Amino acid sequence: MPSDDDEMVGSGPAIHRMAEAKTSEGRTIAVTWTTGERVTIDLRPLISKHRVFARLRVDDAFFRTMQLDELGHYIFWPDEPDCAIPAAYLEDYAVPA
Q: Which of 33, 54, 73, 91 registers the highest number of CB atoms within 10 A of its CB?
């Protein structure tokens, strides 16, 4: 009979998932991870690096249309299918709220 150790394969640290994500001041977002931890994330360093995020840098109304996918794996902007940022990237910029 297999033990509990035989049924699970380790694959590294757990990937954060978001329970909630809302836009905040400037280009920051407020995130609540599924663990209950709340953080603030400044997206400026991320969106300043890639051309696909150019509209996010200058259009406040568009920035505020940010949504969270139903599984909590990434944030995205509905009118721009290429504008999405995975939780794994966001956690590197998180500051406790």
A: 33
